[in-house]
Amino acid sequence: MTPDPGDVPVHDGSPHELSWKDLLAAAREDATFCRARDLVRLCESVIARAGLTGFNSMGSPRKDAEALVFETLAIRDHNERYLDAAVSSLERVQILGLLERRVDGPTPVPYLLGESFFAGRRFTVRPGVFIPRSALGKLLDQVLAEVVWSAQPRALELGCGTGALGISIAVRVPAANVDLVDIDPLAVQVATANIRRHRVGERMQAAVSDMYDGVDRAARYDVIVANLPYVPEAQIGRTNTEIDAEPQTAIYRPGDGLDLVRRALAGSAPHLADRGLLVLEVGTSNQPAVAELLAGRGRWWQSGGAAAGVVSLTRADLEA
Ligand SMILES: C[S@@+](CC[C@H](N)C(=O)[O-])C[C@H]1O[C@@H](n2cnc3c(N)ncnc32)[C@H](O)[C@@H]1O
């Protein structure tokens, strides 16, 4: 006889009722997790049960889990083929410690590891500096293909954070000199460390600057890229709590959030070469408002068939 759904007992041990704290406490007592796959599985489950999506971390609970386990095992390639790697008891303790800090905070994985992953490369990051994840990273090769490079190619990143975007340009365009600026001295310090790390110091420099205030007025850039803060301050506390780990000054702006975007639109033309390109990430939610400001000027980019919240404008567009 098929039981009436009302008769089915609800028992306390339902796996759905386990919290991340239960799982983590049990794992600390249990030494059977001895392969990478077991710990990846555990980490993924704990992170997901804590309600974390990983959007400003590695992208998903699974990718967070792989990063925590593989990085602890000094396996730089987070590939499934290493899931059978043995985990020593010391490594296991270390992974569980990182996992606890991941969910109890919550702290994004890049801050735990001091490493961020962007456009196929690793960049040093630390708490207080935005974790690079711009939509522009995915579009970078396509966008750079549109740039008309002059005989002495030059690029600028406004609001550089770790410098991941600008350094990715320098790596892809070996003839280019690339300048980075950020209003935050800590970001400039981290960007400088990343310039050294990627051995592009002969062609790159990072400086503290409020938008164009500290930028060489004589320089004419072939491309200027910017992923500036654009989320309205009214959103503070309303977005996913994971974002609270990052500096508010890198994310939020007063009013409609677009004052720095307006400053970039108003101030970029004199810094561009005649055929130079300004590329701005403004976020998909701001795309309609910025499109209205631009009144038909510029080219909006798509990623995977969807709006990317990224617009490019030529110097002529900006002067129109
Ligand atoms: C969203 S983060 C992006 C960082 C980096 N471009 C990336 O995509 O990873 C915005 C950055 O702009 C910087 N910023 C904020 N206001 C600025 C200003 N007035 N002038 C220059 N940089 C600014 C912040 O400090 C932060 O590093």
What does this molecule look like?
This protein has 320 residues and is of the alpha/beta class. The protein is elongated and about 65 Å long. Residues 1-13 have low confidence and may be disordered. The strands form 3 sheets. The protein has a 7-stranded mixed sheet with strand order 5-4-3-6-9-11-10, with helices on both faces. A two-stranded antiparallel sheet has the order 1-2. The protein has 2 domains: 15-113, no CATH class; 116-319, Vaccinia Virus protein VP39 (Rossmann fold, 3-Layer(aba) Sandwich). It is 35% helix and 18% strand. Bound molecules: S-adenosylmethionine. S-adenosylmethionine binds next to helix 7 and strand 4.
Q: Report the order of strands and helices.
A: HHHHHEEHEHEHEEEEHEHEEH
Span of the ends, CA to CA: 77 Å
Write the CATH homologous superfamily of the largest domain.
Vaccinia Virus protein VP39
Can you tell me the CATH architecture of the largest domain? Answer: 3-Layer(aba) Sandwich
Mind describing the biggest β-sheet? 7 strands, mixed
Overall tally of structural domains = 2
Shape: elongated
* Radius of gyration from the alpha-carbon trace, in angstroms: 23 Å
CATH-defined topology of the largest domain: Rossmann fold
Percent helix range: 25-40%
Q: Unreliable stretches, pLDDT < 50, 5 or more residues?
A: 1-13
Total beta strands: 11
Structural class based on helices, strands and sheet pairing: alpha/beta
Lateral strand order in the biggest sheet: 5-4-3-6-9-11-10
Q: Figure out the total of helices.
A: 11
Which ions, cofactors or small ligands are bound in this entry? S-adenosylmethionine
CATH class of the largest domain: Alpha Beta
What percent of residues are in strands? Answer: 15-25%
Average predicted confidence as pLDDT: 92
